[in-house]
Amino acid sequence: MTEALTIAEIRRWFDNPLVKTFLSNALKNNGKDEKLIIEEALDNLVFGAKCGLTCRFYSWVIGVILKKSAKTFGTNPEEVLKNLKEPVFRRGIVNVLEGIANFGVQTPQTTAAPFLVVWQLTNICNLRCKHCYASASSQVMPDELTTDEAKNLIDELARTGVVAIAFSGGEPLMRKDFFELATYAKEKDFYVSVATNGTLIKPKIARKLKECVNYVEISLDGMKETHESFRGIPGIFNKTLKGIKNSVKEGLDVCIAPTITKFNLNEIPEILELGKKLGVNRFIAFNFIPTGRGKEIVNQDITPEEREKLLNFLYSKLLDKNYPDIFSTAPQYSRIAIKAAQENSEAEVLPTHFAGKEAREALKGKTQVLSDFIGGCGCGRIYCCIQPNGDIWPCVFMPIKLGNVRKNKFKDVWLGNLILKDLRDRSKLEGHCKVCNFRNVCGGCRARAYGYFKDIHAPDPGCIYNKKYWDELKSAM
């Protein structure tokens, strides 16, 4: 079966009126304990929880749908049922099915709620990085959400169906109630991660993180001289390394994450080797975005040719099983992987930069289909950002206020905001992004497009296919 036929089969299965009507009804409240009918039915399917005749009928139909989906994607239905024992996985399934009920089957898909919310918990930070999107400092925002407001927001995100919360900053570990909030989120069955500079992760902190966080992402922007110059504070390289080592020692899922600029481009192979030596699980090369303090170093952005070469290098190392998982937030990485797979059947397609080796192995031969649905840049479609004061943005790198959690229901903003609806419509893209054969699996980095052109539909000037726009930008500087 070809990938195109597989997508057609999924559409035939999920877009028919009977299934859509069933899903719409299953996503109603059960009228008893604030659970959705589908959640009660999943409890019956997975755990054998007692429920009424109607619930058991829904449970049976959902079981058929999930087994059909598993077969379509070439996975073991028993493994799907086993994974459904995990609350995060169940919430993800409900989110996807509700997204299909709301929007139909799309390529790329919009989910009923963000799979991931990056929560910029605070703007305070102990470093002063050249590229900081938050322009973080030692000053606390006067209208930062209180602990009670933050917990209420976590409750609301759970009701909305958000799957993962990534606490970011600033430096989130500097917020006094960080562990209280992370623990609360964990208790609410979120997949919890934290993005940190690592300098505060002493052994005691690493042990506390292990109790409430699934994943730790630590910024490492170069070897000693480069890292300290980029991060603005002398002497912090060794503190960062100690934070990484302490996290690895505690058995945390650890990622190192450089932001790629001309400052560190030539050191990426060395940083990768260092990460391998330290025993990290993952390496993510972050796109540079000209926002926040990053606007002051826009001349340090790498060229499309340099990005293309880097992504090909990273992908070559991803195929080497001796290295950790290697990804990039540049959505063009999926295109690199797909082209490699077209030339080499042993190559891997990347559905997203969060898909680890186990997930890709389980979906071997079907990840192209997932790439079409997940769709590269997830800005405002499967992901969004919340600021320290509760403002909702499409992306941490895209400072467009969509609403505020103190005034608006989060789900109302997600489903009804016109800017988000525009972001989700890739037929409105401009430049080569509009006509690109990889539009569905990439879409260009919308934050880079906005950062350079103040237009969410503009071409991503970092892509080799949009080189002429990059050249025009450089000639105007």
Q: List the total number of helices.
A: 21
Strand order of the largest sheet: 7-6-5-4-3-2-1-8-9-10
Strand fraction band?
5-15%
Unreliably modeled segments = 1-5
Structural class: alpha/beta
| Major beta sheet summary | 10 strands, mixed
Q: Summarize model confidence as the mean pLDDT.
A: 90
What's the count of strands?
10
How much is the radius of gyration in Å? Answer: 22 Å
Basic shape? globular
Cα(first) to Cα(last) distance is 50 Å
Helix content: 40-55%
Task: Describe what this molecule looks like in 3D.
The protein contains 21 helices and ten strands. The longest helix is centred in the first third of the chain and has 20 residues. By secondary structure, the protein is of the alpha/beta class. Strand 3, helix 9 and strand 4 form a beta-alpha-beta unit. The termini are far apart. It is 46% helix and 9% strand.
List the helices and strands and how they pair.
Layout: H1 3-14, H2 17-26, H3 37-47, H4 53-72, H5 77-83, H6 87-103, E1 116-120, H7 147-160, E2 164-168, H8 178-187, E3 191-196, H9 203-212, E4 215-218, H10 224-231, H11 236-249, E5 253-256, H12 268-278, E6 282-285, H13 304-318, E7 325-328, H14 332-343, H15 357-362, H16 367-374, E8 383-386, E9 391-393, E10 403-404, H17 410-416, H18 418-423, H19 432-435, H20 446-453, H21 467-476
Helix pairs in contact: 2-6, 3-4, 4-5, 8-9, 9-11, 13-14
